[in-house]
Structure formats: structure tokens, C-alpha cells
Amino acid sequence: YATFKSFIDNTYIRVSLPAVCFVWQIAMVVLFGVFIRYDEESDEKGWNEFKKSHNITSNIENDFYFRYPSFQDVHVMIFVGFGFLMTFLKRYSFGGVGFNFLIAAFGLQWALLMQGWFHALDPVTGKITIGIESLINADFCCAGSLIAYGALLGKVSPVQLMVVTLFGVTLFAVEEYIILDLFHCRDAGGAMVIHTFGGYYGLAISWVLYRPNLNLSKRLNGSVYHSDLFAMIGALFLWMFWPSFNSAITNHGAGQHRTVINTYLALASCVLTTFAISSMSQKKGKLDMVHIQNASLAAGVAMGTAAELMITPYGSIIVGFCCGIISTFGYLYVTPFLEKKLKLQDTCGIHNLHAVPGMLGGFVGAIVAATATEEIYGKEGLIETFDLTGKFENRTMSTQGGYQAAGTCVAIAFGLVGGVCVGFILRFPIWGDPADDFCFDDEAYWELPEDEETIPPVLEYNNHMVNKHHDTHESQFSLEES
Amino acid sequence: YATFKSFIDNTYIRVSLPAVCFVWQIAMVVLFGVFIRYDEESDEKGWNEFKKSHNITSNIENDFYFRYPSFQDVHVMIFVGFGFLMTFLKRYSFGGVGFNFLIAAFGLQWALLMQGWFHALDPVTGKITIGIESLINADFCCAGSLIAYGALLGKVSPVQLMVVTLFGVTLFAVEEYIILDLFHCRDAGGAMVIHTFGGYYGLAISWVLYRPNLNLSKRLNGSVYHSDLFAMIGALFLWMFWPSFNSAITNHGAGQHRTVINTYLALASCVLTTFAISSMSQKKGKLDMVHIQNASLAAGVAMGTAAELMITPYGSIIVGFCCGIISTFGYLYVTPFLEKKLKLQDTCGIHNLHAVPGMLGGFVGAIVAATATEEIYGKEGLIETFDLTGKFENRTMSTQGGYQAAGTCVAIAFGLVGGVCVGFILRFPIWGDPADDFCFDDEAYWELPEDEETIPPVLEYNNHMVNKHHDTHESQFSLEES
Amino acid sequence: YATFKSFIDNTYIRVSLPAVCFVWQIAMVVLFGVFIRYDEESDEKGWNEFKKSHNITSNIENDFYFRYPSFQDVHVMIFVGFGFLMTFLKRYSFGGVGFNFLIAAFGLQWALLMQGWFHALDPVTGKITIGIESLINADFCCAGSLIAYGALLGKVSPVQLMVVTLFGVTLFAVEEYIILDLFHCRDAGGAMVIHTFGGYYGLAISWVLYRPNLNLSKRLNGSVYHSDLFAMIGALFLWMFWPSFNSAITNHGAGQHRTVINTYLALASCVLTTFAISSMSQKKGKLDMVHIQNASLAAGVAMGTAAELMITPYGSIIVGFCCGIISTFGYLYVTPFLEKKLKLQDTCGIHNLHAVPGMLGGFVGAIVAATATEEIYGKEGLIETFDLTGKFENRTMSTQGGYQAAGTCVAIAFGLVGGVCVGFILRFPIWGDPADDFCFDDEAYWELPEDEETIPPVLEYNNHMVNKHHDTHESQFSLEES
């Protein structure tokens, strides 16, 4: 059956993919037309008025200059980081980086709308106003769906990925609203809202889409030398720019500054324990690129909540230390276990890079929040850091810690339940997903160039041409044909 | 004839390339010595005096902090973006990224001089003063010639490229002077001055250099799997950093802020329509990497003029929507048509990525400018945005729109006429360009490493060594020879 | 003997590598716990107090906003720049980028401690406080050891590299203390403290570790087409971000601004002379990727000291001009000479990229410092630029120049003596270094994926499957096995 399936050619997406792209993009045009406007710091008139009303004399006070360098780093992480991290398969690199490009480009537009409706809708004008912070948040929101893609890599069609993203962004906006607005949690780098949610969302979808005969494509489910190097580009850009990711929307001043330091230290520490466990796990102590590319990033995830808090430099290093160990063990033992026992196929191992470190990060954040004191932060600092104003003015730190922990659970729940529902939607036989023996194969959705080996050596080719020319006195036109 | 040509070996550049590099670089030393000085924000004494005279108390007001992050992004686009986008050919990746490196490094020095003479020459001292904005403009100016290189890729020698750049930068400075100074147009991201000019300049040169027997190198005029991935690195860095490109020299504050938002949205929208048209064009809906790498960038080009204006977020998305369609259609139908009917060989398809979207962007800018009102921008904002001071104080917005449209035409004219002239110069048989059967081949200008297939497997090799050792009782030294 | 060595398999690092990683990382946790705290600009309470005590009204005055964009660029240079530059070998790309990742992640933690003890230890509290500038300095400090790795690439084990880094960072902190604090030199981009030291440190180690039979691995000591392209990614990110490297810790305002301009110009100039000499050196004028990847960076090194001074734009171009020539000649003649006559094997040619240009940069800096006048810098500017305060208030410029020259000599001495000592430590037969015929081979320390050629073509495979299916009427399960 599996083999015949590929003859029916259900990877035909000539109608469905263009239809989805066009219809959804036209919807974006309409919805943006109705709802989206510049905010007061990007509007020409608005900014001039804002400066006057706030007695600002210098343009450098525009939020743009506080956020733009971080934004560009986050943007690189989304498109090159996630994209190239997923090029590690020997024959799915086009799909890895290409579909990542497609769904992120769609997701960020949809995210501006969804997050806008929940967080920035002006009740008077009925408009959403956007600025640089909105763009960062939109990129963040995409990340949830891109993480989910990691579990599905090579097994779904681009149309399915668009559906994953549509629902992923929608669910994200709702859980984010609950966690950040209703629970009033802090989660600058999204350990909860991005990584925990995205991780469990992807795992749940993959669990519903379980393919018992996936080993028909086993020959392609692995890397080659140069595809691992491409993946290393993605991994390093994620690793290097994670301090920007976690600090991109933290408080101006010491907040951003401290977040960068904490994330930087945790990531460095994580690299050493990753190398250690990777080496220990092999007979001769050889290292495994899968671990280096992935587990060394886990600390960035796990610092997603706590990095902006006063976790202290050595606290950060301890988090990194543990994450390298946990994540590498995950790749060694948990992913194979999940596949065998839970029938959960997780191509990139997002369980170990996002789901578990994200959950861990949520609880680390809860602990650090619960132990925050005025002595450490100063009175003013405590209020600023946790935004204890308005109706949250009297919240105690232990309450805050409790809400942070509850937020993590909400993220898990949204991921699992949402993922199962979306998984069932994706099982309709209309999405053009590949047959089991056609997984992990760019041939399914891409016009591929000829193989490298088919380049004839130049000199031989030329000599051949010349000899042929001399021997047979062929005309120039016949030469061109050969 | 074509075959014999390669025996005459006219790719000998051992004299011409070093001569051009040395002579022109020495000229740079002399001209920089005579003309170029630090401006008042980079000069030690000057900045201290500037701060006093302008009552500035903080160093953060130095233009450096407004522009430097964007500058570095633009720099990455010029060297990694353009460079790696041109590595897509299976055997011309060294030439793609390497010659791009050479001509950009030359071009930016020459640009500082040319743009300086036209825009920043102090009439009293006779000196050009440079700062961070000059560096951005120099990078921009190079971009024009790098775009032209895209049409010529694989068919010209590095010496010819130096000539293309010398004249390209010169022509750029003149048309820029006409468009920005005389016509007083706005063109922050250079839809007109960079992309329209660069696109038509390259196309005109390529048209003059038409090679009827180019299909002798047909076997090399295509990509392989990994060369397409390298090109994807270039494409993504261009795509991600295009908001920085368009905003790098816009007005401080809301100007830069808004330009980023507009470019970001247009690019995202463009990706979806590119994927849609690419999929629709193939029998089974398969995607083509050429489209993904190129057409998804067209929106950045088309927003080059309008991005800094109040085009509105949905206006930006509409521009992106159209560009993805137009550019992908260009790759599917127009480029083949141009080659067959107009005898115009355009290796990278700059017609669809730069020339047409640039022209489109010029006219979009004209329309948005013509419809600008005080209601939208505020009185102050309108004056600032269009710099309506001095002798342009009383210019109406419809006049401004007219000049913007006229500026686009000037850019086309300079590109076409300049390109034809330079093309004829390049036809002199002294430049070391490759024979028709030696195009698209790094062998012509690079010492290439041995082929990958020649790596002997380690264990076999070792066993072989050991056996040999055991069998023949050779000494260790003879082993070393083998 | 050499051949047999590989049978003894001394690349077993399953105990030593994890042990070193764990023990040293635990030491980091403890030492960070005892010593490292946030500084007043990253501490929540501290920053609020700092703002009050300094009458600062805006968070934009936090040093974070002056330094962060440069920091991220430096971070990219350390991990992607150095890492990918070392992927050029055909079968040591994993080791190039992977071990670079490991030792940089360790080195930066150790550097924060070592540099902290020497420069930022609070005598009252006994604590080191860190901020964004500390992170930049830690990255800089790593660079010294990463440069040394360049000379050792392919010939040492990761455990040895950890030792190289441990001592490298320690020596760095001491020489830096002598040069910057005792001698009171200026060396923003580290021509002396980073490049001269790192270069000679690596060369001295490599000299002690000389392998007479290294040509047993000769077949792997070279590049392939795509490995050269990966290396080009590293080279370009180094080249593009070198202005950030040199300016990252210079004075706010005109200082950072000028440093960027000078470095940018010198690098551009260097590219042209590199291409010229590379082309001149080959019979047919063909270019060599080794030169392009390396020599074009030499100007960044050589501007390490002088870039922040008023060297003038044309002075910068002259430095770049000379560096391209000197460095390329180094690759052509000096490296082979060193190997044959001095028995010094320098895999990446750091002699020509770091040691010599760094030394040159130290002396250029000395000359530019010695010729500084109040007329050029202004009285205030001269004091600020050379920090002539406290006990250095009355230092003359010629004295400063003398100290700068002396500093260069200190860097050389530390590199050579330190390197020889570390080299002898590395000769203990306990570190798991590879046998002579196992050098330049990732097989020694990495689980490698199967070769690319082993991917069966999909269609053949499928047809094969189908035929098999039709012919033998096998069940679906038997299909799965095949």
C-alpha cells in the first residue's frame, strides 16, 4: 500500500499551495487595511506630537533605537537560525530552510493581527497600532510554529505547515494573553509561551500523525558531511543571538543589559556539559553533531523566563550546566524511547531542545520570581521588573512565583490539546503529504538540480570536444548539441 | 572557432589584474590623501567642538549610534548577501563570492570619492568629510555595480568587472546627483538610483556582450544541491536585512522606524505570492529554488522609495503581493523571452529582481509622494520627510510626485546608455574574458582544489599503507613519499 | 612506527574530555559564585541608584546601548568567523567549527575571571563586577587562543585545545595587564594583546609539537570546493565585522565612529593588493582561495592599535595596502620556509594573518601615538584618547609611542615563552592527540555520517521497490525491511 501510495502521487500541491497562499495573503491585505496602523513612534505626525507631549528633545529616545539591534538578531534567528538548523538532513535541506521561510513569512503577518487583537487593540478607534516591539513579538510568535515544524520535518506538506502555523499562531496569542495579561507573568524570552508551547504543540501533532512505516524512508533520515555544516550555521546563529532573543523586549536599561549577561553565561556553560555528555556516550569518546547542534542551545531556552531577573551570574551558569546534561541525555535516550514506546516521531528532537528546557525554564523563572526581594531589586526596581502596578500593585512575590508556575502549565496544556486537535485536522487526506517512502525527500516538493557527480571534468570535456571536432569534422552546431 | 579560442587561453590575467588593482589602489591612496578627511562627528577635535557648539551633553547623539547597526546590516548584504546569492552556479561559486568581494572593496573607495565630490565637497577647504552615513552611501553605490555583475556572472573576467565598477560608480554618482540634488527626490533605499540604474546598466552591458555560442557552457549553467543552499544564505541575509537597507539613511526617529515596518511587511507578503506562482508554474506543483532565492526579495527593491513615506502597512503588503507575482512571472517567461528574442543573456535574472521592481518602486514612490498631505504627515512632518526647505519650500506634492517619476526615467536612461557604452569598451579583446566554452567555470580564474571524490577512505588508505609496509619492508621514508 | 601508532588508538578521549569539561565547568560555577556580580549598569538596584547619582534621565545612557551592536558583531566573529574560517580542510570541518565552539565557550568564562581579577576586582568587596564591556573583553581574550588553534588545526585533540585555552587566557590576562595597565598603552582592537600574542603563542606551541611525519596525512591537508565556500563564510564575517571588533571598546562618540571608518578603509584597500599579489604569483594569473580568505583580513589586524587614533583615512588605506602585500607574500613564501627550515607547521598560516600583521600594527600604533599633537586632537581630545589622567597626566607623546612599541615586544615575548612552555606540557602522552597519519581527519573525534555518494537515487530506489513488490508478491512488512 505504502509503495502504491506514491504512485497516486498525493504530493500534488499545484492547486492547494497556491490557493492557500493567495487566499490567506489576500485576507492579510484586507485585515491589515481594516485594523493595522503605525503607532505613535513610527507615525510621522504621531512622533512629532509624542515628542512635544513628553518633552523629548532627541530622536534617540524613540523605542526604535532601544530595540532595533535586538530585532535584527531575532530576525536572523527565525530565518537563518531555525531555517538552517533544519537543513541537516541529507536530502531535505531545501524543505528545511524553504518551508521555514514560507511559514515564518505568513506567520508573522497573522501574528501581528492576533497579538494586536489581544494586546494592542485601541478600544476607541478599533485599530491596532504597531511599532518595532510588535515586529519582535510577531517574530517570537512565529517561533512557536517553527519549533513545531522541527518535530514534523520531512513528513508533512507545505500546505499542512501553513495550517500548523495558522492554528499555532492563533493558539499562541490566546495562551500568551492568559499567561502574560491575565496571570501577569514575566516571560521575556518565552520559555513558557514560545518554547514550552511550541515544543508540546509540535510533539502532539507528530503523535497524532504517527507513521508506522516511516522506516521506508530511513535511508534519507540522516545527515551527510556538508549538510551537518549547513546545520551548524543555523545552530551558531541561534546560539550567538540568543542573548538578543531573551533581551529583545525586556525593560530598557539594566533589564536588557542583565538579560544579555545571563543568557550569554548560561549558553557558554551549556556547551561544555553538552560536549562532555556527548563524548561520554560513545565507545571511543567521539562527539555527535546532533548533540552539538542542538543541546548546546538548550540553555538559551531555559533562561527564557529567568534571564531578565536577578538570577545572578553563577545562577545562570548552573542553569546552563544542567541543561547541557538534560538535553544531551534526551537526545541519547528519551527521543528513541518516545519513538518506540509512545509512537512519537520527533525529527529534530524538539522534545529535548524546546519542550523540556522550556518547561524547566518556566519553573526556574517561578523560583527566581518567588525569591525576589526589595533588598535585591530595590523597591522601585521590583515594581518595574515585575510591572507591579494597577491591580497587581499588592501582589506578593510568592504569589507571582505561583502564577509563573501556573503559566508554564497553561503553556503545556495549550500545546498538547491544541496539537492533538490540529493533528486530527491534518489527517484529512487532502493536504498532499508524502507517502511513507517519500518522506525526508526534497524530490516531493522541489524541482531539484542534477546531481553533482554529473559535472563532466572541464579539461576532459574540452579535450573530448576538440578530438571530436578534429576527428569527425563536425560543424559547430553539432558541437553545441553534444 | 569557439573551441580553439580556449587554447589561445585568453583568460591570462597575470598582468592585467595585478596592474589594475595596484594602479587603481595607488590612485585611491593619492586621492584620499588629497581629498578625504574625518567629518565633525568622527574627528576627535571636531566632535568636542560640535558638542559644545550644539549644546550636546551626551555622546549618544553622535550620528554613529543612529546609523551603525543599519550600516553593519547593509555591509553584510553587500558582501555576504550579494556574494552568496551569486554562488548558486555549480562551478562558479568562487567567482560569485570572490569577484563580488573584489569589486565591492574597490567600488566603495571610489564611491567615497565620487559621491564626496558631488555631495560633500567643502567649497572653502576643498576637502570631502566622511562619517558613518558616507560609508553607508558608499556601500549603496557599490550595490549598483554588484547588481550589474548579476547579469554578467560567469561570462566576464575580473578585470572587466573592475571596469564595470569604475564606470558604474561614476555613473551612479552623476545620476544620484541629478535625482537627489537637482530633482530633489526622496529615494532612501534606492529603488531608482540603485536598483533601476544597476539593473538596466547590467542588462545593457550584457546585451552588448551577447554570446551566440554560450550554450557551449550550458552544462555548467545550473546549480547543484549544495550550491543552491549557499545561495540561500545570501538570499536570506538580503531578505532579513532589507529593512536596514531601506532605513539606513532615512530620517532619525519615526522615519527609520516606519521604513523598517513597511519593508518588513512587504517582504513577508512577497514570499507568499512567490511560493504560490512558483508552485503553480510546475506540473506537479513543485517549487523552484531560483524563484524562492530571488523573487521573494523583489518587494525590498520595490519599497526602496516608498518605505520611508506614509504608505501605510496594508499599502506595503499590497506592493509585496504584486512584486512576488511580477518577479516570479519574470523568471518564468520574461528572462527566456529576453534571451531568445532580444539576445540578452541575464545569468541571475536581474531584470526580474532589480530592473523591473526598481522601476515599479520608483513609480510607487511617485504616487505616494504625490498623494501626501499635511493631514497625514502634519505640517512639520511633511517638510521634514520631503526636506522642503530652501528653494524647495514651496514645492507642491504633485510636483514632487512628478519629479519622482522623472527621476525613475533618469535612472533608466543612465543605466541603458551607460551600459551600452561600457559594454562596447568591454568588447576590446584585451580583458581576458573566457571563451564561450569556458564560461561559468571557476577553472578559468581560480586555482581549484582537487575534486571531493578523490579523498581516499581513511581506513582503506591506512590498511593499504600497512599492507604495503608489511609486504615490501619499505623504510618509513618511502612511506612518506607514497 | 607512525602507522602502528594509529592502531594503539590514542585518540580515545572518552574519559579525559568529559573529565576536563566537567571539572573545569564546576570550577567556573564555584568561582563565579564567589567572585562575579552584575555591575552598576546591569544590576536592577544599582542602575536606579546610578541614574540618580549621575543625574541621568534616560536609559539610553546605559553603556549597553553604546556597546551592544558591536558586541554581537564580535560574538559572530568569534564563533562563526573564526569557526568557519577553519572549516576549509576537506575532512576537518567538524573539528574546525566544533572545537572552536568548545574552547571559546570555555575561554570566555575563564576570561571573565582572569580579566576581572586583574582589572575589575573591587578592593573593598572582593568582587568582580561585569557588564557588556566585560563580555566584549572576554570574547577578545578567547580570540588569542582561537588564533593559536589556527596553527594547531588538525593536529591536536580537543583536550589539548582546552589546555591551550586555559593557559592562553591566563597568559593573555597577564600580558594585557602589563601592556594596558602598567605601560598604559592604547590597544582597542588588540593588535598587540590579541593578535601578536595569539599568533606567536600558537606558533611556539606548534614548533614544540613538530611532527616530522605529518605528510602521512598529506592527502587530507587541503580543501575541496565546498569546504572553501564554508571557509569563505567565516572569512567574510570576520572581514565585515572587523570595524566592530576594533571599535567595540573604544571611547564613546567620535572614538568609536573614527575607528570604524579607519578599519573599513584599511580592509577595503587590503583586498585589492591581496588579489593583485595572489594573481601575480601563479603562472596564468589564477587566484588562490587561501590568500583571499586570509590575507584580505590582515589589515583589520594591523589597524588594531591605530584605528582609534587620528591616523587619517589615507593613512588607513596605506596600512591596508601594505598588509595585503605582506600577508600574501607570507602565504606564498614564508609559511613554506618556516615549515622546511624552522620545522614549524602552521596549518592556517596564522604567522601571516595574525603574528606579523599584529606586530606591524603594534608599531604602526606606536608611530601614530608618538606623532599625536594637541593641534590634531585638541587638548581635551588628546587627554581623552590616551587617557592621560592621574599618574600619566604628564606623559609626553613620544614616551607614549615608546611604551606602545615596548608593549608589542611584551606581547611577542609572552607568546613565544608561554607557547614553548605550553607546548612541552602538551607533549605528555596523555592527551589523546592523533597519530601522524590520522591528522586533519574528523574521523578521530567525531561520529561521521555516511558518505554522500551512498544516497540511492530516489526513483531507482522506488522502481526497485515496486519491481520487487510486483515480482515477488512480498508483503508490506518485508518491504519495510529492505
UniProtKB/TrEMBL annotation, chains A, B, C:
Its membrane topology: Multi-pass membrane protein
One cellular-component annotation, GO: plasma membrane
Parts of the chain that traverse the membrane: 12-36, 74-92, 99-118, 130-152, 159-180, 192-210, 222-241, 261-280, 292-311, 317-334, 405-426
A Pfam short name: Ammonium_transp
Family statement: Belongs to the ammonium transporter (TC 2.A.49) family. Rh subfamily.
Name this polypeptide is given: Rh family, C glycoprotein, like 1
Record's keyword annotation contains Plastid: no
